[in-house]
Design brief:
Helix content is 61%, strand content 0%. It is built from 13 helices and no strands. By secondary structure, it is an all-alpha fold. The chain binds protoporphyrin IX containing FE. This is Tryptophan 2,3-dioxygenase.
């Protein structure tokens, strides 16, 4: 006899109940894939981007949660959220393996259909960058046609970044973070600061004395480590698929992405290693 799970209590009647698909709004998610060409690989391309955006949504949620916890001096709760963010990026990193199964010949079959659209215009990606401290105002431009998105990005620029909140917390615990850093113009990109490096050097020279700061620092480094890997995997996949062609978004492509590899989120935390 074939096994009937309903005999073991599985619920089979959803006429009056919320089902899995209702709760997760699966219909909406699964009806959002509309290839513009007949090329077989376009579906992979669409789903890869959409799933990345979903993971980015969660990453943002967790970064925001962590930032809030730090602002409220609840650092251990923030640490857990930051661990999750690093894991999300690890997940995104593994995802490149799927995309790499698409060859240049396959991509060229539908590339023209993308027009000028590109991940360069991903507002969630920019929000993540802005939230952690990489605030490049030039990146607001592609969103000017969408006042709602511009408002989101501007609101982010008005808030202290994750790194700002960490430095404020260090200051509250008695570490000597300069007033100019605490009062900095939040809209500007973070600039390497010699005095902040000194603060981190003090922490790293005596971890047991500054355990909380030390743990937060290592979580930030962890996050940036995974984030760098994401950028590196992206640029390698891009070179593999389009070589040195210009991007659909209009940049020089590989040259642009390689330049982005040099962006540092928490520069003092990388430099401090040399100081020890
Ligand atoms: C075959 C696959 C892909 C190719 C050929 C590609 C190509 C490119 C290129 C050339 C750029 C530079 C901007 C431009 O001129 O277009 C770019 C930027 C970007 N792409 Fe991709 N990409 C691919 C897959 C992905 C995927 C799966 C994601 C995930 C969401 C993604 C997210 C981004 C982001 C966020 C940027 C902006 C990076 C920055 O400004 O630092 N890309 N991509």
């Amino acid at each position: 006899m074939t096994y009937d799970p309903s005999k073991d209590g599985a619920q089979m009647d959803f006429r009056q109940r919320m089902s899995y698909g209702d709760y997760l709004q699966i219909d909406q998610i699964l009806s959002a894939q509309h290839p513009l060409s007949v090329a077989h690989d376009e579906m992979l391309f669409i789903i890869q981007h959409q799933t990345s955006e979903l993971w980015m949504k969660l990453a943002l949620y967790e970064v925001n949660g962590a930032r809030q916890m730090i602002a409220q001096d609840r650092t251990s709760e923030a640490l857990k959220m930051l661990s999750r963010v690093a894991r999300i990026f690890e997940q995104l990193n593994s995802a490149w393996d799927v995309l790499r199964t698409m060859t240049p010949s396959e991509y060229t079959q539908f590339r023209d259909d993308l027009g000028q659209s590109s991940g360069f215009q991903s507002w969630q990606y920019r929000l993540i960058e802005y939230a952690v401290g990489n605030r490049n105002l030039a990146m607001l431009k592609p969103h000017e046609h969408r006042p709602d998105l511009l408002e989101l990005l501007e609101a982010e620029l008005a808030r202290p970044s994750l790194y700002d909140e960490v430095l404020r917390r260090l200051s509250r615990t008695g570490l000597n973070v300069p007033e100019a850093v605490l009062q900095r113009d939040l809209r500007q990109a973070w600039q390497f600061d010699e005095d902040v490096l000194k603060v981190w050097a003090e922490v790293y020279r005596d971890p047991s004395k500054y355990w909380e700061a030390y743990e937060v620092a290592e979580k930030l480094v962890d996050f940036e480590d995974y984030f760098r890997r994401w950028r590196f995997n992206h640029v390698t996949t891009v070179e593999r698929v389009i070589g040195f062609k210009r991007g659909t978004g209009g940049t020089a492509g590989i040259t642009y992405l390689r330049r982005m590899l040099e962006v540092e989120l928490f520069p003092e935390l990388w430099r401090v290693r040399t100081e020890l």
